Amino acid sequence: MVEILHKTTFNKRNPKYVLYLISVPSMIRNNSLRPLKLILFAASVATLASVNAVASEHLQLSGFGNLSAIHSGTDDFGYVYDLTKDPIYGELSLDAGSSIGLQLNARFSYDWDFVVQGVIKDRIQNNLDKSITWAFLRYKVSPAVSVRVGRIATPIYMLSEYRDVGFAYLWTKPVTDFYANIPVTSLNGGDIAYTTPLSDGIIEARVFGGQSEVSINTIFSSYEVTLSPMIGTKLSFYSDRWNISGSAATAKVDEGNPASSLITFASSNSQILGLWPSLQNTLHDFEVETTRFYYYSLGAQYETEDWSIQAELSYTDADWPFFPDLMAGYTSLGKTINDLTIYGFASKAKSVGDFYELEPPSITALTIPEISYAYGIIKSNLNARVIDQETLGIGARYYINSQLSLKGQIERSWLNNDRIGSWSVNEKALTKPVPDYIDTISIGLSFVF
Question: Which domain of life is it from (predicted)?
């Protein structure tokens, strides 16, 4: 279980030291380092701060937040913070990266506790249920084994337990090429974790399973998709200098289809189906329900008092035309001087493997405007999901105090081979010229309390 520490344990000279403290399970921490717990639900910072005063030995309440401004995208190609958010089309957005959260931890005994966390932020589909990101009961079977049941963070990448806690990482936002295409953040189910000392650190093995509901934006609309069952495992090693992890997970689409509008459009005209016989099989291939996705990731973080290096690599195997297999990764390097950390990163995301081959209608059928239009729309939608992008970014983080940091970042993303899968487009933009690159500028004020 990942927990944020009290501000008194924060070392402002080393930005990654915060990440290490957040990541290390409680069994290897000094008993005097009490966790700074996260989120119940919040309407304002003032309310959260006042409630924090009631923390006691058995009930602890604390929070975090991000105030962010992001300028990115163009009039035709929208910047995607992640798949659950509205894109940014060449303007300044104060919503995409801003959030506020609370966590309540109620400890009933040494063996039992309950954690509930809520995050208020921009979402395509937003309601109270989606705002509650954690809500689980934990039982410590032994000093080495713990079980959680309820809603947990999906442990498939390094930022799993603190993706919304901007204060816990260097950048103004999670690296887009890696994290934008991972919409799964919470899991309704549970996990079992086993930890044991190894050399100068500890090793943790975790298995998890359950159901996850995500909102995905498409060219036509946004859709609710249910992944069930989702099962996986994660193996991690933590020490004073190192944080290394690897995960593997699989999920089946149980309900919802982001391609439903396209299927309805293409199947509503009997003339199109009659003169384009192969289209029926194509539309069947577009059905995503019962499709299974496989996700694999490796991550490593190394830190000293002045330097920090972090890298992640992932591979997503998907048997669905609108989500070609995807490889993504990044490397980040930071140097701390007094209260200022200068950092840079390089990232890449690329669709790999065989892309879906759309069988065209006959030459004669293509002379019919309705069929020619349908073919163009379907082909453009398939091409719009292919990704080939690389990004270079630089930034700085200034530690105002142990609860507050200010960050700024500039990055340039190159859209190779006119591949626009990392960007949001509408139907009209499918035929627009693709820019060679798009710049993103972001600033953020991150805090914990």
Answer: Bacteria
For residue 56, the model assigns a pLDDT of: 66
| HEC per residue, 20-89 | HHHHCCHHHCCCCCCEECCECCCCCHHHHHHHHHHCCCCEEEEEEEEEEEEEECCCCCEECCCCCCCCEC
Asked if 421 and 351 touch (Cβ cutoff 8 Å), the reply is yes
In the chain, the amino acid numbered 399 is Y
Largest CA distance in the chain: 78
Report d(CA 106, CA 55) in Å as an integer: 10
pLDDT value at position 73?
97
CA–chain centroid gap for 84, Å, is 9
SS3 256: coil
Q: Return the closest-CA partner of residue 141 out of 172, 184, 110.
A: 110
> Which is higher by pLDDT, 224 or 345?
345
Contacts 24+ apart (CB under 8 A), 427-432: 427/219, 427/220, 427/377, 428/76, 429/76, 429/77, 430/219, 430/377, 430/380, 430/381, 430/384, 431/380, 432/76, 432/77
Single-letter residue type at 75: D
Considering the chain, what is the average pLDDT of its residues?
87
pLDDT at 13 over 90: no
- 434, burial (CB in 10 Å: exposed 0-12, middle 13-18, buried 19+): middle
Contact 295, 316 (CB under 8 A): yes
pLDDT at 259 over 80: yes
Cβ atoms 98, 123 nearer than 8 A? no
Q: What is the C-alpha to C-alpha distance for residues 133 and 38, in angstroms, rounded to an integer?
A: 10
Quickly tell me which residue has 């509650």 as its tokens: 132
Token pair for 223: 């859709």
Distance CA 334, CA 311 (A): 12
Find tokens 């409680």 and name the residue: 26
Which residues lie below 8 Å from residue 250, measured CB to CB, with a gap of 6+? 230, 231, 232, 292, 293, 294, 295
Residue 80 has pLDDT above 60, yes or no: yes
Q: Collapse the DSSP code of 366 into the 3-class scheme (helix H, G, I; strand E, B; otherwise coil) and give the result.
A: helix
Nearest of 400, 288, 266 to residue 339 by alpha carbon: 400
Domains of the chain in start order, with CATH, are 70-92+143-448 (2.40.160)
